[in-house]
Automatic annotation (TrEMBL):
GO terms for biological process: lipid biosynthetic process; methylation. SUPFAM superfamilies: S-adenosyl-L-methionine-dependent methyltransferases. Keywords: Lipid metabolism, Methyltransferase, S-adenosyl-L-methionine, Transferase. It comes from the Bacteria. This is Methyltransferase domain-containing protein. It comes from Nakamurella flava. Pfam families: CMAS. The active site is at C412.
C-alpha cells in the first residue's frame, strides 16, 4: 500500500502520437517490427506477442536482455543477450537455434519507430535499462582496442586472432566436426538423408576434389596453408604426395602431428606451427589454401597471392577455397557479432575481387565454382553434432562459448541458404615463361 503521507509520483501516461506507446516488452517489439511476427515472443513482464501456435520463439528473460539490445541494436546486441542467457530460444535447444533463425530470416520485418515514441517507451521499460553493462566474457575487444596485439594482419595480431578461435579445445572440435576434424565446406553429391552421418564422407569428397583439381601425382610436393588439423595434408600423403601444412594454431598443429604419427605418414606429411609468410621452401608442385584467405585481409590479397605464387614451380597450381560475398563492393569487414565472437579481423569480399588479385599476382585463373549450398549442409551437420554432444561441449568449453558456436554456425547456415554469403573454389596455375600452363583442354576432375 502506498504511504499517503508521502508525495506520490505522477502516473506516467503516453504522449499522443497517433498510437498507444508500449508499456510492455511485447509492445516494444511491436513498435519496432512491421507486419505479423513469424515467431512467438514472450517476456519477463508477462507480455507476449506473435502467433500462439508458433513452434519456435524467443523469451526475453530479464531487463539485461533489453540493455544489450538497446545498447547495441542489431546482431551484436542480440548475440550478447543470447550468449549471456538473457534472450532464450523456445522450441529449440541452445545447441542448434537453426529453426528459429530460419523463421526469423524468412518473416521478421523491422521498422524504425517514430522518434516521439522513444522517450516514453524507454521510460515505460525503466531508464535503468539504458545503463551499460559489460558484454559476456566470450566477446573480443573492439577492433580499435586490439591495437595492443599489433597492427591489423601483422604476424602477431593474426596469430592472436587465430588462437582466439581455434585454440579453444581440440576435444570440443572433435565433438562438433566429427571424425574428419575438418572445419571447412564439405562437398555433397546430393542432399543427405542424415546430415551428420554423411558429413565425414562429404569432407573426404572435398579433399579428393581439391587433390584432383590440383592434378597431384605420387612424388610431387604440396603446400597446404592454413592447414587446420591436417586433414588435407594426410589425404595427400596417403596418395604418395609429400605434403607440408602450416597453421597459426598451436593446438591444431599438435593434434595434426599426432594424427600423422598415428596414421604412419611421417615420411610424407609434416605440419608446422608457422605463418604462411614464413615458409622458407619453394618449388612446390601445388598449393592448397582451404579457408585461409578469409583471415589475411582483403588489402593483403596482393601480397598473399604473390607469396603463394613464389612458392610454386612454373606450371604449378593453386586451389583457393574461401567464403565470399555475393558482391564485390568495398565493404569487406564482417558483421560485429562475427568479428567480436567468432573471427576477429576476418574480412570477406566477392569472388571477382579475389580473382582480380590472383591475376594481378601472376596467376592464370582456370576455373571457379560456388559451393554455397554445400556449406549450408556442412554447417547443419556441425549444428547437429553440437546438439547431440551439447552437455559434453558445455562441460569442455562452458555454456557461453558453446552458445557462441551454435549461434554462429546456425546463422551462417541460413546465410548460405539465402545467398547472403557464398563459398568459392578458384583454381589457378602459374604459367611458364612461354605462357604454357600444363593443363588439359577440358576439366579433368569429377565432383
Amino acid at each position: 500500500m502506498p504511504d499517503p503521507a508521502r508525495p506520490q509520483p505522477r502516473p506516467w501516461r503516453p504522449r499522443r502520437t497517433g498510437r498507444t506507446t508500449p508499456r510492455t516488452v511485447a509492445g516494444l517489439v511491436e513498435l519496432v517490427t512491421a507486419g505479423p511476427l513469424p515467431v512467438r515472443i514472450t517476456a519477463f513482464d508477462g507480455s507476449a506477442t506473435g502467433p500462439e501456435d508458433s513452434p519456435v520463439g524467443l523469451h526475453v528473460a530479464d531487463r539485461r536482455a533489453l540493455t544489450y539490445l538497446l545498447g547495441a541494436p542489431g546482431d551484436l546486441g542480440l548475440a550478447r543477450a543470447y550468449v549471456a542467457g538473457h534472450l532464450q530460444p523456445v522450441g529449440v535447444t541452445h545447441g542448434n537455434p537453426y529453426p528459429l533463425l530460419r523463421a526469423l530470416a524468412e518473416g521478421l520485418r523491422l521498422r524504425r519507430p517514430a522518434l516521439a515514441d522513444l522517450p516514453d517507451a524507454v521510460r515505460a521499460l525503466g531508464l535503468g535499462t539504458l545503463r551499460p553493462i559489460a558484454p559476456p566474457p566470450e566477446e573480443a575487444p573492439a577492433r580499435w582496442r586490439r591495437v595492443a596485439e599489433g597492427l591489423r594482419h601483422s604476424h602477431r595480431r593474426d596469430a592472436a586472432a587465430i588462437s582466439r578461435h581455434y585454440d579453444v579445445s581440440n576435444t570440443f572440435y572433435e565433438y562438433v566436426l566429427g571424425p574428419s576434424m575438418t572445419y571447412t565446406c564439405a562437398v555433397y553429391t546430393e542432399p543427405p538423408a542424415e546430415v551428420p552421418a554423411a558429413l565425414t564422407a562429404a569432407q573426404e569428397a572435398k579433399h579428393a576434389l581439391v587433390f584432383d583439381k590440383l592434378g597431384l601425382q605420387p612424388g610431387q610436393r604440396l603446400l597446404d596453408v592454413g592447414c587446420g588439423w591436417g586433414a588435407m595434408v594426410r589425404h595427400a600423403a596417403r596418395r604418395g604426395v609429400r605434403a607440408l601444412g602450416v597453421t597459426l594454431s598451436r593446438e591444431q598443429a599438435e593434434w595434426a602431428r599426432a594424427a600423422i604419427v598415428r596414421d604412419g605418414l611421417q615420411d610424407l606429411a609434416e605440419v608446422r606451427y608457422c605463418d604462411y609468410r614464413d615458409v622458407p621452401e619453394g618449388g612446390f608442385d601445388a598449393v592448397s589454401s582451404i579457408g585461409l584467405s578469409e583471415h589475411v585481409g582483403v588489402a593483403n590479397y596482393p601480397s598473399y597471392f604473390t607469396a603463394l605464387h613464389e612458392r610454386v614451380r612454373p606450371g604449378g597450381r593453386l586451389l583457393n577455397h574461401s567464403i565470399t560475398r555475393p558482391t564485390n563492393d568495398s565493404d569487406v569487414r564482417t558483421e560485429p557479432f562475427i568479428d567480436r565472437y567468432v573471427f576477429p579481423d576476418g574480412e570477406l569480399t566477392g569472388s571477382g575481387r579475389m580473382i582480380v588479385a590472383m591475376q594481378d599476382a601472376g596467376w592464370d585463373v582456370r576455373h571457379s565454382e560456388n559451393l554455397r549450398e554445400h556449406y549450408a549442409l556442412t554447417l547443419q551437420g556441425w549444428c547437429a553434432n553440437l546438439e547431440t554432444h551439447w552437455d559434453a561441449c558445455v562441460a569442455e568449453v562452458g555454456v557461453g562459448k558453446a552458445r557462441v558456436w551454435g549461434l554462429y554456425m546456425a546463422a551462417c547456415a541460413v546465410s548460405f541458404e539465402r545467398d547472403q554469403i557464398q563459398l568459392h573454389q578458384v583454381l589457378a596455375v602459374r604459367p611458364r615463361d612461354d605462357g604454357s600452363a600444363d593443363v588439359p583442354l577440358r576439366p579433368w576432375w569429377t565432383g
